[in-house]
Amino acid sequence: MLADDETRQWAQRLAAATAPQETGIADGVVEAYLAGGAQREAILRPGRSGSGSAGIELVTALAAVLQAIDVAGVHLKALLDAEATGNSLNLLALIVGIKAYRASQANRPPQDPPVDPELAARARAAVDRLQTSLEKSGLPAEEAHERALLIIKELLESPASAAAFVRRVSAEAAAEPGAGPPNRSRRWFRRGGN
Question: Compositional bias (Low complexity) at which positions (predicted)?
């Protein structure tokens, strides 16, 4: 399925925030990611294509961001859909808190911004999930953390639109053949009789 204008705009925004050298190719990257299959594989695993060219390597950064958003989709949707996210003061405090967290020294424990504790917990969970996915794509932990914070900051600039974008990326990935039901890590069985 082809990306709509809003999805392309989000790809541009995320490229500008996390991988500025990729803004010119963002539309193609999001199209390939949403197409799935071999197209997605080619941008996520450039080494398998055998090309190893610098152009393909550049694509990988935005593709890794899209995959991280897909992987963290549940946490991002919870953050972006939270009632407290609609409160501009909470959003401002959360963005300020994220900036302060980025600027803090590595040996200081992270401090939650002065916002709704549930909103802060959702933000932390989303950052952690994004970071883990970005690390699996090959980024060093510090760079993955920095990029995760940039993604969250960008998404929080327009939470309603960002929520639709996250749903789109996650929905396309869940529709992949053989993907199975999303976010099901265990089966539930009834105990006892019928």
Answer: 171-182
Q: Is residue 102 part of a domain?
A: yes
Count of beta carbons in the 10 Å neighbourhood of residue 178: 4
CA distance 176 to 82: 28
DSSP string, 172-188: HHHTSTT--STT--S--
pLDDT, tens only, 154-192: 998 888 899 999 999 987 656 554 443 333 333 333 344
Q: What is the DSSP letter of 84?
A: G
CA dist 190 → 100, 106, 141, 183, 184 (Å): 47, 47, 41, 20, 17
Query: Residue 103 falls within a domain, yes or no?
Result: yes
Four-CA torsion 43, 128, 117, 92, nearest 10 degrees: -50
- The reply to whether 55 falls in a domain is yes
Instruction: Decide if 192 is inside a domain.
Output: no
Provide, for the chain, the percentages of residues in helix, strand and coil under a 3-state DSSP scheme, each rounded to the nearest 5. 75, 0, 25
State whether the Cα torsion 89-94-96-100 is positive or negative.
Answer: positive
Q: Residue for token digits 């996390």?
A: 18
- Residues 72-95: tens digit of each pLDDT: 999 999 888 876 666 655 665 666
Q: Which amino acid is at 85?
A: T
Domain count of the chain? 1
Enter the DSSP assignment of 110. Answer: P
At position 109, the amino acid (one-letter code) is: P
Cα atoms in the 13 Å half-sphere on the side-chain side of 32: 21
